[in-house]
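Exam revision sheet. Question 4 asks you to relate a sequence to its structure. Input first:
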Amino acid sequence: MKIGIEAQRLFRPKKHGMDVVALELVKALQHLDTPHEYFVFVKPDEDVCLTDSPNCRIVPIPGSNYATWEQIQLPSYARKYGIDVLHCTANTAPIWPGVPLVVTLHDVIFMEKMTGPNTQTSYQRFGNMYRRWVVPKIIKKCEKIVTVSHYEKERIQKTLQLPDNAVEVAYNGVSNRFSTPPNMDEQLWVKERFKLPERFFFFLGNTDPKKNMPTVIKAYAQLAESVPDVKLVIADIAPEIIEAILSTLGKRELMAQMVFPGYIPGQYLPSVYHQCEVFLYPSLRESFGLPILEAMTCGVPVITSNAAAMPEVAGDAAFLVDPTNADDITATMKKALLDLPLRQKKIAEGLKRPALFTWEYTARTMLHIYEQIKPSHD
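Answer key, structure tokens:
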């Protein structure tokens, strides 16, 4: 088969969850011994993080905006290369693909009613509008819909009123690079580069409401009074956003307790995880939660939510909290930091957890799905 894989944003410098999943899937497929050919369709950008291999060709497709690239140029290139099945990896797909279609629908959060303040950027709002327009149209044309957890499968089936056999689950994996401790020189370089303090909680910030940032900040503000020597590092967020949240709490002085390193490229994340005391991931809503496994692989205790797919991914290896309860998060942060026997128990359980989630398994699951699809020219 000639298998096309849409990875439009793969080469952008600031990668996020869906981009990482697409990258790791393709790398795993490149290492599988199969007779198939893979054609990875990307938009040219600065970070050329993937190259051709004997069974895989990278096909740059120039374009302007996301929608034009996906709806017009991608189907044209799929036909040009004689693709037998096209896998679109990031929630959306061409409405008229011209070839059999598989879509990874990571979540249907964009179709759910949001509660609380809307802190999304205009880019995020446009993306959700686009998904709400495209997804109901493409699900009728998909040969198979794939998602990343059983929790999300149930959400998709309920939201889009789909039968059980319409959706398959292919768990995400965790990269092996997180299991190799960075050497001391690298850790020191990363510490200096991102101005990391001696002791810190690590939180991957985001303006998306599901990341629960105001509650996390409130929880830390409560803890900082009793544990002032452990700072909070918040990646990928503008300081003024946090300052506004602290001002509403009357805790603006805590800005001095926080560090804002900006976006941290993926290759440096293992060093950051290894240096932090506790990783914070108490999101309101996740379809998977890949950073949970990344941090666990680095031997770091993880605090995450007892909601959505996070317990499915974390199992008993994380500290689970009610993400809407700042007091619960505060108490658990203190416990994860100071209750040493429990902390070591969670670290030991966490080191075992990632073995259940490998990119090879993800690739073999996707390959099985591709091979079930009958090419349109047969």
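Marking note for examiners. The first helix runs from residue 17 to 30.
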